Amino acid sequence: xxxxxxxxxxxxxxxxxxxxxxxxxxxxxxxxxxxxxxxxxxxxxxxxxxxxxxxxxxxxxxxxxxxxxxx
Length: 71
Fold this sequence. Notes:
By secondary structure, the chain is mostly helical. It is built from five helices and two strands, in the order βαααααβ. Helix content is 55%, strand content 11%. Helix 2 packs across helix 3 (29-36). The model has no long low-confidence stretch (mean pLDDT 93).
């Protein structure tokens, strides 16, 4: 099982830059970059809420479940 963060795709669709989004959401550019590059181990619900608010999207637009491939 894998959880994929698709923040980069949503940011491109919304035409917003990392530093602008970080400022609006209230987190550092470094932490937002970790999320954007799918390196995060966790995400706070308050951060997810702020991202959805600023990007005008749903949590499912940002997070995708990828099941294990079983032979």
